[in-house]
Amino acid sequence: MDGPKRSQLRVRLRVTARRRGGDGADRAGPGGGTGGERKRRMDAPLINSAAKLQRREIGGRQLAARGGGAAAAVPERFRNMQLQEEFDTYDHDAHLFVKLQFLKKRSKIIEIVAAKDIIFALAHSGLCAAFSRVTNKRLSFLNLSPDEVIRSLFYNKNNDSLITVSVYASDHFSTLKCRTTPIEYIRRDQLDAGFPLFESESLKWPGFVEFDDVNGKVLTYSAQDGIYKVFDLKNYSFLYSIPDTNVQEIKISPGIMLLIYDRTPSYVPLRILSIEDGKPLKLFKHLLHRGKKIDFIEQFNEKLLVKQEDENLQILDVRSSELIEISIEKFMTPSAFIFLYENNLFLTFRNRTVAVWNFRGELVTSFEDHLLWHQDCSTNNIYITTDQDLIISYCKSDAAADDGTASSIGSINMSDIMTGKCIAKIAANDPALSIAPRKNGSPSIWSSIPEALEDVTALFYDEDRNEIYTGNSQGLVHVWSS
């Protein structure tokens, strides 16, 4: 999401319109995980609840050769990291340009996106700020209307623009509105140069918009018309539509879409379409255990994963019809997934722990020293590098408070995905970690190291700049860099 280097990064970001009414602060979240309910139209809950099924799917380059030199170079990327900068999304003068009370209050950061030399930070209130890493100053707030609540961000690398998805008080926060603005115009603080997208679509609850980076497509659902539509992410042109005839959910994989229909007591009908033109590729039925709820159905290339309550995980090859079952004792329902398509692996998150599996149902890696801080496994606190070699997360720290109780301060841990080893971390008890001195002597960082690592609510790694950005519950964004 941050530039050409991540051209192969797969990001599925779904934002669903909420029910009519409310104050806008209780917001449905995107698949990238902004902390709200992500509507899923299945007749059974998927992975406990829709809010927990926030996920980021990676389809990147093949892993680079992991020779001794390459492996040794990885920790060097994070050596001598310092706290370089601090940005604040809160503005004492917010009342001058917004009229909603919750937009005027300090609010936690729920999403960070970096594009070129600009950092975008979205607060839970719906206020979104852009900061320049060239001047280290705030460029602007992206809320154009006094009653606009921004719900999610998406960096479109195809045309170097930022898409914002918003709701408005004037509409009782019930309809999603999308807008695209070129990064260059944001840099110049010329936000009026942007323009609205998908104006023909009525994205009221339970409608949604989903951005698919790998296939270069946008999927919308208009509940009013009962139609799914697919658009080109490069120029936003309409490609084709899919009637909502008993379709309960659509899952997107590289090159294909999986349509999940209303289940019967004994099976669920499934259809695979070409993502390019919507033409049917395969129609089949997957047998189910009667009376058992569906925990999840997921499609990853030719592999279909189906898990029912208190039943084994089934991995079906839709080409060969080969079926593999993994016992419930070995594979328990996770709270979230991250999929590494090119490596034919996937990560599971359960009870703050991370594991790597292959599609034969074998556990590949268990991680050491990588106990996640947040129970809900929000993928906004997790980053997978483009080479699929590292996972960077906000984790529980080994340090204890002065009174012997568990520390309220976490650490940023970088772990090798293939070995599970922790190769580097940013921790408050690291004596080498410091606040970078200012060249002009003027203070720009008011937080201490421990304060900057306390209650981190969003995390992003800019691979081009080799910088980690964290946001916390105070609405502050911190820049960690060597």
From TrEMBL:
Residues 7-19 have a biased composition (Basic residues). Pfam families: DUF7899. InterPro entries: DUF7899, WD40/YVTN_repeat-like_dom_sf. Coiled coil: none annotated. SUPFAM superfamilies: Tricorn protease domain 2. Residues 1-43 are annotated as: Disordered. It comes from the Eukaryota. This is Transducin/WD40 repeat-like superfamily protein. It comes from Triticum urartu (Red wild einkorn). The gene is LOC125508451.
